[in-house]
Amino acid sequence: MKSYGQYCPISRTAELLGDRWTIHIVRDLLTGTNRFNELIRGNPGLSRALLTRRLHQLTTAGVVEHHDDGSYHLTESGRDLEPVVFGLATWGARWTFGEPTSTELDPDLLLWWLHRQLDTTDLPRPRFTVYVPFTDHPNRYWIVVEDEASICLADPGFDIDVTLRTDRAALYRTYLGRISLAEARRRGDVEMTGSRHAVRAFLTAFRQSPVGEIVATESR
Questions:
Q1: CB atoms within 10 A of CB 187
Q2: Residue-wise pLDDT tens digits, 126-181
Q3: Which residues contact 194 (CB under 8 A, 6 or more apart)?
Q4: What kind of fold does domain 9-80 have according to CATH?
Q5: pLDDT digits over 74-117, tens only?
Q6: If DSSP codes are grouped into helix, strand and coil, which group holds residue 73?
Q7: How far is the C-alpha of 38 from the C-alpha of 44, rounded, in Å?
């Protein structure tokens, strides 16, 4: 970004964080993403070349450090951005977060976010499989939990423990904190089928977005 030419801390911060995708990269690093390919997967439209440049800029500025194992982590100054980033979430949830547009209802991104948020600790083992067919989109997804959760775009051939059937907007609303999964199920926005034990286990494992609590509070 071209310098504003103003000796002001707001200007300096805007020069560092104001480029396209930079705040998203910091957001994802704050919420547990630390691999290059994961940053790409969680930000459709961000090219590998641009991500490389942005990470280089953040590393040069002392906000991010690149570890020997290939991972990226926030430094102390980077972690200090947490109230800034989540402050933007608070303001956005209060003033700009209306209904989604059709272009914002990306099912690939939603399932990527959702499967990474699952608390798999108490899910039945050795394998727990969730099938997610959308009622308003042709893509089908399978979340397979073994040692960790993974997302499949083709049928892995495993027995299905829970089928989660819904439309994209309803699942986005649920994941982003406008309504709990249990309430969405009671209202009929989300249909869950499977054994009582499996459904209960998934309800417990489901975790909303890191900004879910903010959205739930500010968008009422």
A1: 10
A2: 999 999 999 999 999 999 999 899 999 999 999 999 999 999 999 999 999 999 99
A3: 160, 161, 162, 163, 202
A4: Arc Repressor Mutant, subunit A (1.10.10)
A5: 999 999 999 999 999 999 999 999 889 989 999 999 999 999 99
A6: strand
A7: 11
Query: What DSSP designation does 126 have?
Result: S
First and final CA of the chain: distance in angstroms? 36
pLDDT computed for residue 212 by the predictor: 95
Peptide bond into 83 cis (omega under 30): no
Domain boundaries defined on the chain: 9-80, 102-218
DSSP string for residues in 23-65 = HHHHHHHHTT--SHHHHHHTSTT--HHHHHHHHHHHHHTTSEE
Q: Which residues contact 159 (CB under 8 A, 6 or more apart)?
A: 129
* Residue 110, helix vs strand vs coil: helix
- 102-218 CATH: 3.30.1050.10
